[in-house]
Structure formats: C-alpha cells, structure tokens
Amino acid sequence: MPSAPLCEWRLGRDGGRAAPLVGGQWGDGCNIRPTDQIAISPAALPMTDASHRATLDDALAIMRDLRTRDAWDRAQTHDSLRPYLNEEMHELDDAILAGQDAEMKSELGDVLLQVLFHAIIAEERGAFDVQDVAGSLVHKMETRHPWLYGDAPAREPWEQMKSKTRRSLADGLPAGLPSLHRAHRLQERAAGVGFDWPDVAGPIDKVREELAEVQEVVATHGGSFDTHGVPSGDARHALLEGELGDLLFSVVNLCRKAGVHPALALDKANAKFQRRFEGIERLASERGIDVKTAGLAALDVLWDEMKQGE
Length: 310
Known about the structure:
It is a single chain. The chain is mainly α. Among the domains are: about 1-70, no CATH class; about 265-310. It has twelve helices and four strands; from the N terminus they run E-E-E-E-H-H-H-H-H-H-H-H-H-H-H-H. The protein has a four-stranded mixed β-sheet with strand order 3-2-1-4. The relative contact order is 0.05.
C-alpha cells in the first residue's frame, strides 16, 4: 500500500474518472495507483433504488471498478471471456423461447455485461472504447438504411444491397453458425444475386425430387446403418447421408421462400414433440403402463389421445 492516507473514491457518473476523498473532503491528497487496494465509499457505486434508475454509465462505472479491484475480473481477456459470451447468448435465447420477461431482462443484462467487458478491455489496450462501439453501430444502421438516412429513393432488398460489397457467397459468415441457420443464410445470399425461384412452387418440387432420390438410395442400399454416430467408411452410408443432406437443404429453402426461419420452425416442432411425449409418459404412469415395454402400438394410442386433447 502507498504511504499516503487511505483514500475513498467516488466513481463519476460518466462511468470513468473519480475524485479521491481524503478526510471527508474532495482532493488530490492520495498517492494511489490503479492496482492498489482501495476503499470505496458506499456512495461510490450506483445503487438502484426508488430515487435512482441505473444507467449505462452506471454499468460502465461498476465494470471499470471491477477491473480495478477484483482479481478475477481484472484477469479476464477477450479470449477467456468467449465461453461466457456463448453461454449468456444461449441463456438469453432460452428466456426468449420461454417468453419469460423477467428472465429475458436478466439475461439481456448478462449479455450487456459481456459487451461492456470486451469494450473496456479494448479501451485498456488502446484499441477502441465503448463510444467507438456505439459509433460503429450508428454508422452501420445509417448505411444499412440509406432510404431513411441517405439519398436512396426507396428501400433496396438487404441481400441485394450487401451483395455489392461481398467478395464471395460465404464472405463474412461465421464458420460456427448452426447448420440450419447457415443453410438459410447461404440461400438468402444466393437469392440476393437472383439465384432463386419466383415462388414456393419451385422449392416444393425440389423437396419432392430430393425425397425421391433418398427413397431410391434406401431401396437400393438399405436405410439402416448402425454407426453409433461414428463415420462408418461405408460408401452406401455416405451416399445416403449426402442425399438426406440435400433433402434437408431443400426443406430449408422451402422454409425460406415461405417466409419461415427453419431453426424457429424446428424449435416449435421440438417443443411440441417434447410436450406430447411427456404427456404420454404422464398418461402411462397414471394407467400403470411401462413406456419402456409397452410397445409402439400402445404408445401410438396414447400419442393420438394426447393430440386430440390439445
């Protein structure tokens, strides 16, 4: 610790600079470094009460304070925070899917924490700060809406506008995008340069064509390869996998052309199946039926009963 008196610091509402408090008076009598252990007065950090609603400046202030005084927060880097950002995004997605406003508010705060964390670390490196992040957002929104903030006479389709600056179809698409969303985005981008059907009739015909090819492979080579998720090296399995991939891709395209995002549609289908099967388990338990040994015919009866009850 420095030889100067123990200082208290009050963080400014701008989220950054603070003045030291010595003997109850504001002043410069402290010889204190950012790495020193310091005492924070109760008024130093923003408190959410009836008289004060926390702001983004308050959030910045507390994050900067944590970077100064907390060992764990101070040790974090852009790279070390990556798993937490991914986790928070998934938790927010769960809250949105469940329609839980309180959870959504909390999870949005957690995502915001990650945004501020990265911005502050970049600021410390001299790379950019949170104002630069906000400026980038504003600039991006203005350039993406030239009919509102520029001199474009009318709205231009987004993918058509973006295609003018891309070097290739997949330029800028994250490698780790979930497969359904990646297929959807690739198809959107191709449509942006005119590679698209005029309506849903074309994608429907394509789904039929791809399904027929799957049926042909199954009829010729069989449709059951018990690989336990491990690549089998069997050329027949690889052929079936390829045809099923084409079928899935064509269904994604049908979804896109119909104005439905395939991932959202599949989320709803998953939730519906889970709800119905859990209903089967509940009915089976009430009637003394063991679902593990009941067999397909008995379970199918319960399934139909669940569907009728919805």
